[in-house]
Amino acid sequence: AEEILRRMIDMHRQHEGGGGGGGDTRPNFIAYSAVINAWSRSGHKDGPRKAKSLLDEMLQSYQQEQNEELKPNRYCFNAVINAWSKSSLDGSALRAEEVLEQMKSLYENGVIDEKPDIISYTTVIDAYARSMHPKSALRADEILQEMKMLYEDGDDTMKPTNVVYNTVMNAWAKGSKRDGARRAEEILHQMQQLYKTGRDGDMKPTRVSFNMVLDALSKSGDKDAPKRAEECLQQLQDFYELDGDANLKPDTISYTSVLSVWATSSLPDAAWRADSILEHMQHLYEDGNEEVRPNVISFSAVINAWSQSREPYA
């Protein structure tokens, strides 16, 4: 695709110099955006850099020639942000955010006509959620707060969704053992309050939301993590019984995450409690609840809990 674009540029230059016949083949924003998108979706290691280079080339040509047909639109910027968000290269989340910041600056200075939209912001959040950088969860959270501020200031297009909240919780669950669990719990509580008070019906948490908190708790190492995990599981069960939504029904992942919390706990009754939860899972499954069938990880967590215990007959 880029080779064709280069041929178009070469033919345009020949045409300008009087050395070519036929019509002008000057590429416009449609041609550039098609190639940018091709690199964005290519999965090639150099795809993000190639896409960004083309965006910069397009922008430079527009600014030099003041040709409206070369003005980059939101689609071009979002394609580059998306390319970086899917990249496994070090620093790719930061590169995605830099494109977002560039887009904001160009819009504020009147160079381009379209400001970043919710896709621009959520794609950068997703990039940080995928990142292994120690500060990635904090940065994803800060961008969510910026979205909330824009929405509260009257920009209805920037309303965060429950998917965005889930993505930020996932970033905390992955990225910070020390305070990740507590921040994930806080975000889940915000979602619950927004939904339960009727302020935002679209902010309904799902089982995925609760499972992310449980996952964060299983990695936290907090002494009170088992208690908090069981409370979170009970909240999910209560929410399901109240609402009736199948997407809120606790599943194997929910219960196994709680087992994992107990398996790493130093509390004296940890093994007994893990055993009791596994037994409860088995009873639920035998009573027809296919959603909570214990798996290898469930049993392994309980075995680990007993192996770590000081019980004489473990």
Structural summary, described in words:
With 314 residues, this protein is mainly alpha-helical. It has a domain at 1-88. Helix content is 68%, strand content 0%. The chain is built from 14 helices and no strands. α11 (225-243) packs antiparallel against α12 (252-263). The radius of gyration is 25 Å and the shape is elongated. The N and C termini lie far apart (65 Å). The mean pLDDT is 89.
In short:
The protein is an all-alpha fold and 314 residues long. It has helices at 2-16, 29-41, 47-65, 74-85, 92-108, 118-130, 136-152, 162-175, 180-196, 207-220, 225-243, 252-263, 270-286, 296-308.
Total DSSP helices: 14
The helix-and-strand class reads: mainly alpha
How many extended strands? 0
Q: Span from first to last CA?
A: 65 Å
Task: Outline the biggest β-sheet.
Answer: none
What is the residue-mean pLDDT, rounded to a whole number? 89
Into which percentage range does the β-strand content fall?
Answer: under 5%
The residue ranges in which pLDDT falls below 50 over 5 or more consecutive positions are none
Helix and strand string, N-terminal first? HHHHHHHHHHHHHH
Radius of gyration: 25 Å
User: What spatial form do the alpha-carbon principal axes imply?
Assistant: elongated
Helix content: 55-70%
InterPro entries: PPR/CCM1_RNA-binding, PPR_rpt, TPR-like_helical_dom_sf
Keywords: Repeat
Protein name: Pentacotripeptide-repeat region of PRORP domain-containing protein
Pfam families: PPR_3 (PF13812)
